[in-house]
Amino acid sequence: MKLIKNLLLAIAFVLIHSGTMAQTNESYYKAVVTEMYIRSDAESSWELYQKNGTTNITIVVEDDFISVQAQKPTIYRIFKNNTEEINTDKLVGIRYLGKDLKTDEYCTLDIVKSKSSETYLISIIKKNMNFRYFIDRN
């Protein structure tokens, strides 16, 4: 009887533990504006290449991933052990090292909030390209 009780307790522990481990924190957002910048080699500055003022792109933020559900969906892995705080006159947030799982390229992921509004920005920098997704929380 004691063996059965211990076995049932062990099975219950495994089921409860695996159920909590399978849960992830997912948040869904809509990017209302997107921008793409290209770094100018001559000036070492970012130049606006394309701006989309009315978009409806879903961004899914999970514990270790950011998924951009655009025309060509992409998922980025976030490495939380390599972060840098961002605190400027206008923005506050965190810069992460990331990896584009589709192209296997490393990148930086900035998740910042405007200090003067409820606008958030997710900026993804890969090589000489910067993709910016603006999320309005109003």
Question: Which characteristics define this entry?
Answer:
8-stranded antiparallel barrel, disordered N terminus, 138 residues, 59% strand, 9 strands, single chain, alpha+beta
Compute the number of strand runs. 9
Inertia-based shape: globular
Mean pLDDT: 83
In the sheet with the most strands, the strands line up as 1-3-4-5-6-7-8-9
Total of DSSP H or I helical runs spanning 4+ residues: 1
Number of domains: 1
Low-confidence stretches: 3-22
> By helix and strand content, what is the structural category?
alpha+beta
Strand content: over 45%
Radius of gyration: 20 Å
Helix/strand layout:
Blueprint: H1 2-22, E1 27-40, E2 45-52, E3 57-61, E4 65-69, E5 74-87, E6 91-100, E7 105-114, E8 119-126, E9 129-136
Antiparallel strand pairs: 1-2, 1-3, 1-9, 3-4, 4-5, 5-6, 6-7, 7-8, 8-9
Describe it:
- With 138 residues, the chain is of the alpha+beta class.
- It has one domain (26-136).
- The chain contains one helix and nine strands; from the N terminus they run αβββββββββ.
- The protein has one helix spanning 2-22, and strands at residues 27-40, 45-52, 57-61, 65-69, 74-87, 91-100, 105-114, 119-126, 129-136.
- Strands 1-3-4-5-6-7-8-9 form an eight-stranded antiparallel beta barrel.
- Strand 3 (57-61) and strand 4 (65-69) form a beta hairpin.
- The model is unreliable at 3-22 (pLDDT under 50).
Task: Briefly say what this structure is.
The protein has 138 residues and is of the alpha+beta class. It has one domain (26-136). It is 15% helix and 59% strand.
